[in-house]
Every structure is written in structure tokens, then in C-alpha cells.
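Data availability (excerpt). The following record was deposited with the supplementary files.
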Amino acid sequence: MQILLTGRNLEVTEALRHYAEEKVGRLQKYVEKITSAHIVLSVQKYHQIAEVTLRVRDLTIRGEESSEDLYSSIDLVVEKLERQLQKYKGKLVSQGSRSGRTPGPEALPGEDDRPQVVKTKRFAIKPMSLDEAILQMDLLGHTFYVFRNAHSDEINVLYRRREGNYGLIEPET
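Predicted structure:
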């Protein structure tokens, strides 16, 4: 597994680097096909934040936790990822899962008092079944997910409804 560690608003000491890499490295006991991990450690006022993004096959699994101590934040995010990996391993379908990420909207010209697009993401959309899209959305912790439906080859939007069920938006043909 390739591990990339980034520090924001702090200098990453060798002890901190070793601790984070060791903790994240232990996640391979749950799923052996973790190809890469990106760890971002940051400090914002009184919050010490640890973010970890794992690539497992074609899936992206992400966790973020904050506390008053950076070592505690690392422990908390690793525990969260362990739960997500156990859930993933339990739901792994026989043919394998596919991945994608949600895109950001395009920036709209307008006045300064209007909300603005502050982040844009680009990603490759791979065909996947509805069950795979639900799994990916749950693993990312998002409330919606954009994917290419493998059955219809159309772009669909999956979203979580307030009562806990899912909704699916399909284009009209």
C-alpha cells in the first residue's frame, strides 16, 4: 500500500508520521487490496483534524475525525475506517464493486452576495449497478451519489431520503 501523508498548518514530525502510517497500515488486515492511502493532518484553532482517503480496488473510502489531540484524531478516524471496511467486506458482491465520486457544479457568473462554487471535483464515471452505487455512497458518507447505471448506460443520481430510504433520479428517454 502506498501511503501519502500531508500536513496542513503544522509540521509533521517523524514520530507523528510513523504513528499515522502504522495505524493506517493496519487496515490491510480487513481488506488486502488497499492500493493507496492519503492521510491529511491539519490544525484549525483548537481542532486537530485527521482525514484519510483509501483506494480499495475501484472504490474510495474516506473518513474524517477531529479532537483536541492529533493522535486521538488518528485513532478515531482509523476506528471509523475499520467499521466502513468491515461493512464493505460484508457487502462485497461476487463480481466486484466499481467506483466514482460526485462532481461539483460549474461556477456561475453572478454577484458577490450570491453563494459561490468553492470546490470542483472531476472523476471518471464507471458503470455500476444500483446496489454498488448504494454501497459506494454509504462508504463515502454522502447524501447523494452520481453514477452511470450499468443496466441502462444512463447517468443517474442516487440520494438518501429523510426517512432513511433511497431515491433514484433517472433521465427521461
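Summary of structural features: The chain is about 25% helix and 30% strand.
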